[in-house]
Amino acid sequence: MSINWVYILANKRRGRFYTGSISDPVARHAEQMSEYGSKHVANYNLHTLVYFKAYEDKETALAVEHRIKRKSRDYKMWLIEGINPDWADISQAWFDEAARER
To answer: Counting CB atoms within 10 angstroms of each CB, which of 7, 62, 72, 88 has the fewest?
Structure first.
């Protein structure tokens, strides 16, 4: 069994979202920030990781991802603000921790 994650990326203006699910969050985030990520992410400058939640299996994570994608913008904002009211970039903690370990 491996942990899978559902995540939401947003732009600074909070106008657009990208929802996805992954098993390796650090690698996928790096991919999203590079030229090999999603065109939607690049076109709308969705580089702030604002929501992140773990699930025990891939099927559950995919089902949650699809459910979130069908929801309204207001619902996504409510979901994000429930765990990240400041809309801080959650990914920054990964890179800060990696830098401390060097």
So the answer is: 72
